[in-house]
Automatic annotation (TrEMBL):
<feature type="repeat" description="TPR">
    <location>
        <begin position="356"/>
        <end position="389"/>
    </location>
</feature>
<dbReference type="GO" id="GO:0005615">
    <property type="term" value="C:extracellular space"/>
</dbReference>
<dbReference type="GO" id="GO:0016020">
    <property type="term" value="C:membrane"/>
</dbReference>
<dbReference type="GO" id="GO:0008270">
    <property type="term" value="F:zinc ion binding"/>
</dbReference>
<dbReference type="InterPro" id="IPR050344">
    <property type="entry name" value="Peptidase_M1_aminopeptidases"/>
</dbReference>
<dbReference type="Pfam" id="PF13414">
    <property type="entry name" value="TPR_11"/>
</dbReference>
<dbReference type="InterPro" id="IPR014782">
    <property type="entry name" value="Peptidase_M1_dom"/>
</dbReference>
<dbReference type="GO" id="GO:0043171">
    <property type="term" value="P:peptide catabolic process"/>
</dbReference>
<feature type="domain" description="Peptidase M1 membrane alanine aminopeptidase">
    <location>
        <begin position="121"/>
        <end position="265"/>
    </location>
</feature>
<dbReference type="InterPro" id="IPR011990">
    <property type="entry name" value="TPR-like_helical_dom_sf"/>
</dbReference>
<protein>
    <submittedName>
        <fullName>Tetratricopeptide repeat protein</fullName>
    </submittedName>
</protein>
<dbReference type="GO" id="GO:0070006">
    <property type="term" value="F:metalloaminopeptidase activity"/>
</dbReference>
<dbReference type="InterPro" id="IPR019734">
    <property type="entry name" value="TPR_rpt"/>
</dbReference>
<dbReference type="Pfam" id="PF01433">
    <property type="entry name" value="Peptidase_M1"/>
</dbReference>
<keyword id="KW-0802">TPR repeat</keyword>
<feature type="repeat" description="TPR">
    <location>
        <begin position="390"/>
        <end position="423"/>
    </location>
</feature>
<dbReference type="InterPro" id="IPR027268">
    <property type="entry name" value="Peptidase_M4/M1_CTD_sf"/>
</dbReference>
């Protein structure tokens, strides 16, 4: 159409007579994605690269910030992966309902809902990584897609770690592990069993794939791991890759036999749950902690860190846990107070808190697609492990509210208030939802009291205070589809 142009990957070659255009490339890749654009792009120079940003309407005001952040992310990822296949990128706004992000050679497609005023760091790190992992080289078939999806997901964490430090991403790693443990009915190397874009597919290829990379980093060490990342883009360029290719490369760089590691995490669905027994002895030079690490997997072999808290500085020891029972001995100068296994959460494993979190996450996944009875079953599993989990009670309340069972919803929100109040936002939102229930059931004074209690928390998580203030002035109205 007049006034429009076509964007795609490769070199544009106009057809004779100006009635068409052909895009040509000299390297193999997944070509064919295109966009019709109108007007002129915002060209943004940042960190040595130039980004063309094609945002529309009011989102054009966001183009500068997105271009600058794209340059910063590209600079960091280049330092990690090596020379990119495309030095400069084009960002194109798609529309509502489209995936938040999609990567084509040299182009990132960003949905209208994702193209906000503040650039989405996770989205950019994930999609730009795919210029290497997915475009420069790709998995041989869907059972190896963890190689690309996992690295794209892990790059989000690497970039946040680069910006904020290792400690800042510890909650990110825990959240990653929770998502990875939600799928236990197929191993990573059988990902083809799941539908594309399903929660299970992304949990097993993205989250568990990223968890595998994070654990590999712990096993072989930072120096070898980042050398492995750069070597991958050199050795795998312009070809398809299998899991065995990745293993062999990691082994050649680290000098370690990683067959057991790859079998454990990519060909099995199990994860350990550690139990620790130990005794403290006094020695001539200080103290000795002798104990046993137990878990239930016969085939498990993995280095695990121990932290011994003492009256002085803590002591750390790396223990190779092999099979169901492994003995250890650690000498300390100061008197030991406590022994903690895997203090930095490096190993993908179950624990009491993790089982609660995984059950809640599964419930949330069912609730998102309207399978409320299945969601309630998962939340109940969480409450069987931790009866005072405020988050589990809150999620139960949400489901009952959506089902129109207001008495049961009110009971659950009360239980959330009387529970462990973790996370803390469950308090303010339980009061708000109780207020809505009382408004629906025509108990305005009680509703106002709940909104006032919500305001007194001073917790504005997800705009809670504005929500409470709104309904304090005007009663909540039940939606007709409820």
């Amino acid at each position: 159409p007049a006034g429009f142009r076509v964007l795609s990957s490769g070199v544009a070659v106009p057809a004779a007579g100006g009635q068409g255009i052909t895009f040509k490339s000299t390297t193999p890749g997944f070509y064919g994605s295109l966009a019709l654009v109108q007007g002129e792009p915002r060209r943004v120079e940042s960190e040595g690269s130039v980004t063309e940003v094609w945002f529309r309407g009011e989102r054009q005001a966001n183009a500068q910030a997105w271009g600058e952040e794209t340059g910063r992310v590209m600079a960091y990822l280049t330092s990690v992966f090596g020379v990119p296949p495309y030095r400069s990128l084009t960002l194109v706004e798609t529309g509502e309902g489209a995936p938040n992000g999609y990567a084509a050679p040299g182009i990132l497609f960003i949905s209208t809902s994702a193209a906000g005023a503040k650039p989405n760091l996770r989205l950019l790190a994930n999609q730009i990584t795919r210029q290497w992992y997915g475009i420069l080289f790709s998995p041989a078939h869907r059972n190896h897609i963890w190689i690309t999806n996992g690295m794209a997901r892990y790059a989000e964490i690497l970039y946040l770690e680069h910006l904020n430090g290792a400690q800042a991403v510890e909650p990110e790693i825990r959240d990653l592990y929770v998502d990875a443990l939600t799928v236990t009915d197929a191993p990573v190397r059988q990902a083809a069993r799941f539908e594309d874009y399903s929660p299970e597919f992304f949990a097993i290829t993205g989250s568990k794939g990223a968890a595998v990379y994070h654990m590999l980093r712990w096993v072989i060490g930072d120096q070898a791991f980042f050398k492995f990342l750069k070597a991958a883009t050199d050795q795998f360029a312009n070809r398809s890759v299998t899991t065995d290719d990745v293993r062999r490369l990691a082994e050649s760089i680290s000098g370690e036999n990683l067959q057991g590691f790859f079998i454990q995490w990519l060909e099995s669905t199990d994860a350990p749950e550690f139990r620790l027994k130990y005794t403290i002895y006094r020695t001539q030079k200080g103290f000795r902690v002798m104990g046993t690490i137990q878990q239930d997997l016969d085939t498990f072999r993995m280095p695990v860190e121990l932290k011994i808290e003492t009256e002085g500085n803590p002591e750390f020891q790396r223990v190779i846990v092999v099979g169901p029972s492994t003995d250890f001995s650690v000498d300390t100068f100061g008197k030991p107070r406590k022994v903690i296994i895997d203090p930095n959460g490096r190993v993908l494993r179950f624990s009491r808190d993790m089982r609660v979190a995984v059950a809640i996450r599964r419930g949330e996944q069912f609730a998102e697609i309207g399978q409320y009875n299945d969601a309630l079953k998962e939340y109940q599993k969480a409450l069987e492990v931790n009866p005072i989990s405020s988050l589990a009670h809150y999620r139960v309340g949400e489901v009952f509210f959506l089902m129109g069972n207001y008495q049961s919803a009110a009971n659950s929100f009360r239980e959330a208030l009387n529970g462990d109040q973790e996370p803390s936002w469950t308090v303010v939102w339980s009061h708000i939802n109780l207020g809505k229930i009382f408004d629906i059931t025509q108990q305005r004074d009680r509703a106002r009291n709940e909104y006032q209690q919500a305001l007194r928390t001073k917790d504005n998580t997800q705009g809670a205070l504005e929500e409470a203030a709104k309904y304090l002035q005007e009663p909540y109205q039940r939606k007709e589809n409820q």
